[in-house]
Amino acid sequence: MSNFVSIESKPAQGASSAPPQPVAVSASAANPAAQGLQVTDRAVKRIRVAMEKEGVSPTEGGLRLGVMGGGCSGLSYSIKFDSHPRERDRIYEFDGVRVFVDPKSFVYLHGMTLDYEETLMRQGFNFINPNSSRSCGCGSSFS
Question: Core domain spans which residues (predicted)?
Answer without folding.
Answer: 37-139
